[in-house]
From TrEMBL:
Record's protein name: ATP-dependent (S)-NAD(P)H-hydrate dehydratase
Coiled-coil spans in chain: none
One MF annotation (Gene Ontology) recorded for this entry: ATP-dependent NAD(P)H-hydrate dehydratase activity
UniProt keyword NAD present: yes
Role according to the record: Catalyzes the dehydration of the S-form of NAD(P)HX at the expense of ATP, which is converted to ADP. Together with NAD(P)HX epimerase, which catalyzes the epimerization of the S- and R-forms, the enzyme allows the repair of both epimers of NAD(P)HX, a damaged form of NAD(P)H that is a result of enzymatic or heat-dependent hydration.
InterPro entries hit by this protein: Carbohydrate_kinase_pred_CS, CARKD, Ribokinase-like
Residues noted as binding (6S)-NADPHX in the record, renumbered to the chain: 41, 94-100, 162
Entry GO CC: cytoplasm
Length: 245
């Protein structure tokens, strides 16, 4: 269901459609949501960025988990306080975005190996989770760091990070369902463990989707092709007993 509330500056009505007015409409929807993604398709228009900032603040007040990607990372780069110390936030930068975030937080990305630098950046943000995308995905909250190196495809198409954010926000919604005890379980997983599992699971899903899509499409692979493999990738990773998958 599309709700066309967001506005760029040149589309706003004169004297109306302020960031506060637009964000209020969206904030009213948050009680019906479990987790949100901020960034893909957002753009860097000042009104869009200001509105997103207010939505993040509203989500934080409700304790909602959220994923920040794409132009949402541009917002964090310019206003790091918007996610500072919020451990329910997950940032998903590629190499260039990761380096820009490091610069914002005064971290030299070439000082140390990838696991160390990712950990330092997560720690500098006060415990947010970072998924540094690349040939291997480095995942850290500043205390614990994991590496997801499952085999992916040989082509990376612009936009396939949307598969990661989509899988990730789904797992974060399941995290809330777990904590709300929507099914019987021993409730043994902590909040930080659930976030880490969501991050690793989404990384593994995306890499598996990439491999499956590349096997079919080769160099003609497009980002949308990954979406078609989500069902099979989930089955491979979480429902199959074949270790080769």
């Amino acid at each position: 269901m599309v709700h066309p509330y967001m506005r760029q500056s040149h589309h706003r009505e004169k004297g109306t459609d302020t960031a506060e007015e637009i964000s209020t409409k969206i904030e009213e929807m948050l009680d019906r949501l479990h987790a949100i993604v901020i960034g893909p398709g957002l753009g860097r228009d000042s009104l869009m960025q200001d509105t997103a900032k207010l939505i993040i603040e509203a989500a934080k007040k409700k304790g909602m988990p959220f994923v920040v990607d794409a132009d949402g990372l541009f917002l964090v780069q310019n206003h790091p306080s918007v996610v500072q110390n919020y451990t329910h936030a997950i940032l998903t930068p590629n190499k260039a975005e990761f380096e820009r975030l490091c610069k914002t937080m005064k971290i030299e990305p070439s000082h140390g190996d990838e696991t160390e630098v990712c950990s330092r950046l997560a720690k500098a943000f006060g415990g947010v989770t970072i998924i540094q995308k690349g040939s291997k995905d480095y995942i850290s909250n500043g205390k614990h760091t994991m590496v997801c190196d499952l085999k992916g495809g040989l082509k990376r198409s612009g936009g396939q990070g949307d598969t990661l954010t989509g899988c990730l926000v789904t797992f974060l919604a399941w995290k809330k369902a777990y904590q709300d005890r929507l099914w019987k379980h021993d409730n043994s997983l902590s909040d930080s463990e659930l976030i880490a599992l969501s991050a690793f699971g989404a990384s593994a899903m995306t890499r598996n989707c990439s491999r499956l899509a590349y096997e079919k499409k080769g160099r003609a692979l497009q980002a949308f092709d990954l979406s078609l493999e989500v069902g099979q990738a989930f089955k491979n990773l979480f429902e199959s007993e074949d270790p080769k998958l």
